[in-house]
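Reading a protein record of the kind used here takes little practice once its layout is understood. The fold follows as a row of integers, each naming the local backbone shape at the matching residue. With these conventions in mind, the following record can be read line by line:

_____
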Amino acid sequence: MDAQSRGRADEIDPADQWVLNPRTGNYELRLDRSAAQQQPSVAAARRPSSARAGAPGAPAAPKPPKTPKTPKSPSPAVPGPRRGDGPPGRRGGRPRKGGGGGGGRRKKILVIIGGTLAFLLVGGSVGAYLYYDHLNSNLNVTDVGDAGTGGFKKDQPINILVIGTDKRSGAGNEGYGDADSVGHADTTILFHVSKDRSNATALSIPRDLITNIPACPTKQPDGSTKTIPGEKGIRFNISLGQEGRDPGCTMRTVKEITGITVDNFMMVDFNAVKVLSTAVGGVPVCLAKPVDDKDSKLKLDAGEHRLQGEQALAFVRTRHSFGNHGDLDRIKTQQQFLGSMMREMKSKETLTSPKKFFSLAEAATKSLTVDSGIGSIDKLTNLAGELKDMDLKNITFTTLPVLDNPAEPEGKKATVVVDQRVADPLLKMIQGDVSLTAVEKKEQAAKDAADAAAKSKADALLQGNRAPAGDVRVDIYNGGGPGGAASATVNWLQNGKGVNKSSNRGNAPAKVDATQLEYAPNQADQARALADIMGLPATALKMGSADAAPKTPMKLTLGADFKGAGISLSAPQKAPEEIQRVEADKAICAK
């Protein structure tokens, strides 16, 4: 920081430059006596006035107990922050030819996103606003156009797509993955945060899932937009990198698979596991048996270990020593590592250590590529503030349910397909903002009271008489459902349900996320009947203020949540027993 300009960078740990001011209760940049008389803090000068220590309206920095100052020593994991500095070789380093470290894309990194989510969960406490300008310069920002919502909303659920790539950037990573890889969606987690911020679901999407990748508009270096054609029946992981696809293409593909619109993305590469695990002082892991993996080079005895740097990367890359030696079991290892990192970052030892705070801020921001919707420390801090108080026991890791690809011969199964029987109810729970885990009793009580009030109001709309199916009049529009959804729904209603006065009106004027039925007060009996027939939740019913003229049809707009005629939109309240899941607060030994 400021010390760099005074020629003492090699002697100073960046965390030691910030000290607690007893008068303000905030952390401030420490200057030596002579420098303090000559000039103010560079970091403070660059900071917006509202973010400077002690400024009106500035959030208070954490107040750890006073402890003896630790001896200054160079930090190999987090060098003294200079504008534009990053991990050696992070940008533009030319990889060496030849394999190593296991070689091959099938043996590469897994949970490089670990510290990214963990940093978000504690970031509101870190006080990263203390040096905005410097941390902003660490971030890489990508414009993904309308692939996401452009930014999360405080009164709505949040959906962040966290992408770990197999790109070989970063010093010491030349031997991992493919030498010529542009970086694919190797590890992908859809992180859904509930509307009330009491719980979250982290849904892993297997890299070898066979899916359809939609057409994808991408921003070019000259400012123009190039649309990359869609492809059908290919691996999910090439939704990024291949043919010039950017993270926005992965966001669009995830929506295609899950029906969930992503708000923002965060992306990291190989180096993230190494620098973040080192910055936090190591991540505790447990092994149920000894491991000596010749591909990942992980060699550990059974029992507990604290891993950082190369060892941490080897742990999350290991495939042949855990489970059935495949990527699906390696996903479980990723989730265990990520949960442990979250626990470590929310521990008292981390929360009361300014040294770890600033080391983590450095490591996390240098590891990140984000979209413009969260492309600044201001916006990331706002996001962190939404998540920082969440209890880890209310964060559930799970994996999109899949089956072996039936198109491949026995004994040569290399890809998977979605198991719709199990995946559909799970995805409906996420779409309906239903938690996979119990929240604290007091939180649950408050939520139940609020839900009961809302449900009572909504259910009142469904009480009373239902009109005969033949009396129901409705115009149907497709506002985000599958192609041909309006026509298919009309055919289903007329030919199987007796709703003969239904009409296909084609595409809606604008797309909507949730299916909605608009009706007048004097059409309530028709609305109730159609809701019963189609399995519409009470929240989909939108009653107007004035009665409609005789023979006026209701208006049904099929949203992005609509999967097909006859498929209920009401979210189940209990997850399928078959799904794999684990809560972030539980320490589990890798088997």
About this structure: The first helix runs from residue 33 to 38. Confidence is low (pLDDT under 50) at residues 1-17, 31-114, 124-130, 169-179.
